[in-house]
Amino acid sequence: MILKDIGEFGFIRKITRGCLIRPRNILKAIGDDAAAFTTPPDEITLVTTDLLVEQVHFLRSATSGFNLGYKSLAVNLSDIAAMGGTAKEAFVSIGIPADCPLDYLEDLYNGMKTLAAEFDVNILGGDTTGSKTDLIINVTVTGSAPEKEILYRDGARPGDVIFSTGFLGDSRAGLHLILNGIEADSEALKALLSAHILPKPYLREGRFLARQNGIHSAIDVSDGLSSDLGHILRENKVGACLYSEEIPLSENLREFCVRLNFDPVKYALSGGEDYTLLCTVSRDNADRIAADYLKTFHRQLYLIGEITDSGKMEMVWPNGEIRDIIPSGWNHFGTEKVRDRI
Amino acid sequence: MILKDIGEFGFIRKITRGCLIRPRNILKAIGDDAAAFTTPPDEITLVTTDLLVEQVHFLRSATSGFNLGYKSLAVNLSDIAAMGGTAKEAFVSIGIPADCPLDYLEDLYNGMKTLAAEFDVNILGGDTTGSKTDLIINVTVTGSAPEKEILYRDGARPGDVIFSTGFLGDSRAGLHLILNGIEADSEALKALLSAHILPKPYLREGRFLARQNGIHSAIDVSDGLSSDLGHILRENKVGACLYSEEIPLSENLREFCVRLNFDPVKYALSGGEDYTLLCTVSRDNADRIAADYLKTFHRQLYLIGEITDSGKMEMVWPNGEIRDIIPSGWNHFGTEKVRDRI
């Protein structure tokens, strides 16, 4: 069945099922000129938005509808996580080319709804329209957090330690497999693909970190470790020194790098779309936070370096040598794309 | 200069100027993972979003950047107006093809900023990315209103009168000029073009109406009078009778229709993108509201018909004949586009 058969309003009726999963505090969901909902009176509203365009962010032929829907919401939830917030309402704009099958679109909404349900997020509205050539998805997510617990990029100070909530580089390795048509013929490669396709938003972890004493700044790794840490350094006019041996590398990434003869640390540095959280924490709170984090999530909080007053990004290598890192990663309009420079 | 020369972050720096015009209550504007702001504790949050895609909603060759930016915000402000809200924060996602000149984009943001300034709206964030072929703009706007004053589509009752805040059909006439390459060689035709290109969001009027006793429902006319009134009828399982002689037709539209041999009432019925507000009001409050509206805005509130229990949409013609109206207007995925059926 194609979209033309059921029309715009038929399509909206079809996808509306399962969008409102937390009706408390919602005065109006899909079906009016705007959604209407209450926000906790003692909390700050957070809003983020991300646009995904076919041929730029994804290839329809290489991505299932489910995975595309899941990821288009995940990247927004990750932004709310990086602010220390609770994600609340999602708004989905979709531009649909005439040749896009209805099944693909239903699958796309199922991917979104699956992730939304996991984090108690309503899909509360959006816009559906045609598109001449490319499938287009824009997702906006609102969230909230108590004012004193919001995590900003600014606030990092020399002496802070830098934590990552998860492995770095896996997602880029997964993308490498897709772009180069390499079959994921082992559990390790399958896990890398999955890290790229179905990234995990660290919402509960962000909320946990936001409540800790001594946390100074946070960002999610969307463009790559060196690029996103670079934002924190510029914002705070500080430097950083990363410990090469402490960069969290999965066994999967190591296997991938051995096979393809890549340096896994460089891969982790200039990757992208990891959607882990980076945060900086005063050193005297670091051990306590890491221990509580482990107790709460049964996963490690990785201490990967420290904030310095050097004004530049550096890395200590196993031989004790310290070398500058030139931040690299994704720049949508630059001549270079993902780069390996160190 | 093209975008590649200044890169994504250079572009963001360039457009950020003039985005934050109401810093009170804003904790974080552009430049973090999400925007953070307070909402009035006794008000309800409203959110709407609209996606505009090149070749579907506009032709870059036929639209200046300024007008495109202005309109992409205006359509969202109109949705907040239709809820009776005050517009607050805007979030702009833009997908930019490589051949799009920087001047065009700056002009586009100037159009948005000009309208945003008129209504005290901040541009508080967004997403900038590439696009393979088409220019893509998605705008999300938040607003707020006291709970008891929000205007929904549901609430219309038989006996209500139907008001329009402005002329109907002008925008469609302007579109007709563009699509048929007809030169706007008179003041009348220029005004029709302008109604299409720079639609006025009725935000102050929506707020005024929202505060009135006896107002039952509202919607903005984006798809056309008969189509949007149709939403209200379906939502409330009621009918409506429109008075053909009371449909507000501008002198400009009348001149256009004489020249092109169109029926202006049919034009107004099946038009689109008027962005006037339609509302239904209990009859005993109608005179007072219309008088106060005139006093406040020095413009008329047009009483165009009444809600009935007939379950269908009808129109009384000058000869007293009553004929059914089949709602028509824009359906993005239908086989028919704007239609003239009565």
Any descriptors?
Phosphoribosyl-aminoimidazole Synthetase, Chain A, domain 2; alpha+beta; 60s Ribosomal Protein L30, Chain: A; homodimer; disordered C terminus; 342 residues; 4-stranded mixed β-sheet; 13 strands; 2 domains; 10 helices
Protein topology:
The structure is a homodimer of 342-residue chains.
Chain A lengths: L2 H14 L9 E3 L6 E3 L5 E11 L11 H18 L3 E12 L4 H17 L3 E10 L4 E11 L14 E4 L5 H10 L7 H11 L5 H8 L4 E6 L4 H12 L2 E5 L7 H10 L3 H6 L7 E5 L1 H15 L4 E7 L4 E4 L5 E3 L18
Parallel strand pairs in A: 4-5, 9-12
Antiparallel strand pairs in A: 1-2, 3-6, 4-6, 7-10, 7-11, 8-10, 9-11, 12-13
Helix pairs in contact in A: 2-3, 2-6, 4-5, 5-8
What does this structure look like?
- Two copies of one chain form a homodimer.
- By secondary structure, chain A is an alpha+beta fold.
- Chain A has two domains: 147 residues, PurM-like, N-terminal domain (60s Ribosomal Protein L30, Chain: A, 2-Layer Sandwich); 164 residues, Alpha-Beta Complex (Phosphoribosyl-aminoimidazole Synthetase, Chain A, domain 2).
- The first copy, chain A, contains ten helices and 13 strands.
- In chain A, the strands form three sheets. Chain A has a seven-stranded mixed sheet with strand order 8-10-7-11-9-12-13.
- In chain A, strand 1 and strand 2 form a beta hairpin.
- Chain A is globular, with a radius of gyration of 21 Å.
- The C terminus of chain A is likely disordered.
- At the A-B interface, helix 1, strand 2, strand 3, helix 2 and strand 4 of A face helix 1, strand 2, strand 3, helix 2 and strand 4 of B.
- Strand 3 of chain A pairs antiparallel with strand 2 of chain B.
